[in-house]
């Protein structure tokens, strides 16, 4: 490939040198439609001409052939169907002027007017059609899109022994190319050779172009080499054929030869080569051609500009594509579709929808392709509101029944989890292709509705649609999910007959199904028959079979895999370690590690990373650290495995410290590293460390949506809401999750006004809020005491956005009412829930009862909390506080004894504070944290002074807290 691209670069340079050294004047384009010069007589008006002819006929005077020819010629120039019918009547009533030339012109006239029926009627009345008459009727069929009928009539022409002319053969070659009819092209080629037209340049070029369009590039090359005279059309036909057949290096080879011959390339040539550059993602060569076209003064038409846009899109440089797009004075539909598709492919979905709107504002009516890309953009953004609006436009344009547009709508609704709407669109399709069937079946499986997937598959069989590997995968998963053994065996049988079983993904789905059906023999049978048992197959078999005692045992797994010589010991151990981690079998994992050591297997980076991940998943971070420390060379994957393990198990300080060591060892962090460290920083409020990571991210991964979201989340959890908002608005792409991270921060700090502003901004971008965002908005209402606004948002969540409130939203409403003192209403809200309230809702009401001195309601809350979670220490502690406030000591001791009998202990609280760029952790009742001179004590005293300065004075009342034994109490 590198050699071919070098040749291309050299050829472009030679073309540039030849162009600058030669004549700068551009050659005029070839004029294919040359009209012979007419005489000097003025063209008579149609109306006057036919009136004159009819008068002559009434007077019994014969019509002249010259007059009829002139009338027909004028009618052809005006494309008048009425004139054509008048001429037909005149000819029928005047047989003495009837000649083939007039019939040919009349057929041509009806063809230009789009009336193939009347053209055929004229042809059928010709007793002995000449080759020109045959050409006229064949051209009529081809021009009006009846290509198969044209080839059929050409067969009749040969059967009647009429020898085709050159123009007829050119017409038939064009028809063969449109139909990709290779066998008919061979027959036409033989006729051309018999007629001695094969040496004609125009016929040779047409034959070459037809073979290329039929996909027979080698035959096209053979014709090309035989051509005595090769013009730019010859070269372009061959290049276009090679590109159409995806033989890109052949196209490069002939382009280089073309430059050696000195033939001037035109826009069509460069359009072909730019297509090659796009397909091969050869950006430097594509830019070189673009630069030379601009410097050479070549007039760039709309076709080559559109090709440039497509080339830059395929080379992943959307900015350059957009510059070319903006330079087009009058964009056509292809220009808009290409740039919109490029935006969608590269994740700039909001920009794609903006461009779609601009296209409509500019007066262009969207076509099917533009709607397909617009729907894909809505689907990727998760914007159901915009997607439904786009659907309504598609219905108005009558595109809904189109198979491509309809399949895209099905996929969009499937991603929204609106399967009822997806099914409606699917049922409305006039013709359903395999993609639409697979999309809906896969959606049912992914949304855990395997029964509906099987019913749809049955309907697919009834419609005689042949399924493929993708269908087989989804149906096998559905069978495994519901234990449909008979259907699963039937699909396996069909997969064997269709030879789908050799597909890696189908094999893994078969193993997955047999494991779920507890059919280990079936899984082993598939495994033994596998023609290429790779890591995916083994992972599927071992991970799915991890719950089976037979497959968990490490020695048995090694024994089963050892016969596969194509899989190394390291890969086998890697698979088994993942299986052990899946079922949390730490004993098996340690035995496996021991066997690795005893077997003297070289622990390379891949195997070590698997072991680190295994120990980290077990929570055995010391063993994971030991494997990591023993590594002679630590790549970024090993660092990531350990950092992620520390973060997942709450050792956030260790994760941050390990990240510092990673930097000291000059290891370049990747996206996974940043995500793990940012999560650790957000967990402990290490904003200074987070800012360091932010600075590193800005140097490398500025466009990563996940990392941008993690930064927003980190700043929001650290209380730096302005920084979080700045990061969010600086992201090139924002998802609902990105907005949700900022809303979460506003919810914690009660920033209701900021939440409302963000909601408006999010809606302007075409993104609808999800359940998580509404939870944050309700939390902000609760923390700010905005009861009425909270009620409005809770109502809008259901009625405006169509979201069903979850238990966490209901708990927010309870908390909102309790903070405002509406305890009876909060109780009624909890009791009226359609689902059983959880312990957190009752605890919110419980806490408020103490603040408002409502002992009777507090007792009810205590009973509900104990019923839901007897081991929740917070419930006992809250009740003790209520009794202590009222000095009800008998009840106090009864509850305390009940607490001790359950064994429930309250975990001491933790907090973090950042001092001098270092995060310190302190625990409740850890005496070392409160020693004189301790940095934490100094910080706490500083905070206390600030509180007093701002007028805050904490209330002093009887309070109970558990101390070190978990059951004691103190005043």
Automatic annotation (TrEMBL):
PPR repeats lie at residues 130-164, 231-265, 332-366, 433-467, 635-669, 735-769. It comes from the Eukaryota. Pfam families: E_motif, PPR, PPR_2. Keywords: Repeat. GO terms for biological process: RNA modification. One of its GO terms (molecular function) is mRNA binding. PANTHER family: OS07G0578800 PROTEIN-RELATED, OS08G0340900 PROTEIN. This is Pentatricopeptide repeat-containing protein. It comes from Adiantum capillus-veneris.
